[in-house]
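Title: Request for sanity check on Selenocysteine lyase/cysteine desulfurase prediction

Description:
We are preparing a figure and want to confirm that the structure record we downloaded matches what your pipeline produces today. Could someone re-run it with the sequence below and paste the raw structure tokens into this thread? We only need the token string, no images.
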Amino acid sequence: MTTRYDAHFELGDATWLNTAHQGALPTVAAEAARRAIAWKQKPFELTGERFKGVPEGLRAAVARLLNANEDEIVLANSASYGLHLIANAYPWRQGDEIIVMETDFPSDILPWLALEARYGVKVRRLKPQGRVLSPDELRAAVTPATRLFCTTLVHSFSGHAIDLDALGDVCQSAGVVFVVNASQALGARALDVTGHPVDAVTTVGFKWLCGPYGTGFCWMAPRLIDRLHRTHAYWLSMLTADDLAGELGELRVGPVERAADFDVFGTANFFNFTALREAIDLLLAIGLEAVEDHNQRLVQKLVESCTENGYRLISPSAATASRSSLVLLTDDDPAALARLKSRLDREGIFTAVRAGAVRLSPHLYNSTSQIDLVGDILNESRAS
């Protein structure tokens, strides 16, 4: 029997199967945001301890989530923030090469393209034979000029997960920086950054982590931090409000010492960061393994319903390492697929359409009865 976690959320009668777009905010996170609003209503509640404690608390929660050190965490507002940070802070040289997947989500490609005219860097867009790049395809593409490889952990347009360790081994053996966008994975599954050959992981906080929109973070291995130069000098990453009470003396901008030197401006983001911390703490309390088990039970039921009713799966059909929490189905008859989407909409079942497929992305607030209803609709739509 699947454990019910929907009591932590307030979705009402809606069936939200679009976590790949936005995760639902848990009640405890909403309460934290309301407390933060109350602080702002009475600015004397915005104490120095809270200005310091909000980013410190979130950084500590993220470190626990990733089994990382706090000094390796960059607080951000998106996954793109981390990608642009690395793109603009890395010491590029004329002729350096970056490899991306041609069919990846745009956020994993665009930051690197902006470097071509500025530094003479070449971005190679590899088209995979399957849904995501295989280790053999990457190995064959790497050249002595290759400096960095960026890809997604779970592909938004197909639901396929990459072979993180095998791709990382290819990069590690060639001295290539390996950057991973985990936005469609982290929160639906555990990710221990100490157990994989990866140099950086960036993600949003508002999908599977169930935080507010406009949140995210980036983890970077110390070996990568040591190679990066400053992109900005944010005063709160170097000073505190208490420092303003006396003579500041001569301001200096020193070398990068920790990941926090790259934090987004406004790290005492009371409305968003307090809520994201509560959402992460909730997931950790439930346990990421339990969340993944719950999600995969729902995914399995969806896969079986799709197969039984003759829909073609874009996402993996077998329960292998390549399966994620995203289920994408399509039909050879576009009109039939459009009718299915319309029926789901009418029944208050929220999904998305990506790359010509209906995408369903269940999370811990969904129940087996909701998935059974989707199965009934798949059957009825096929029969009609």
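Thanks, this matches our download. The two ends are 32 Å apart (CA to CA).
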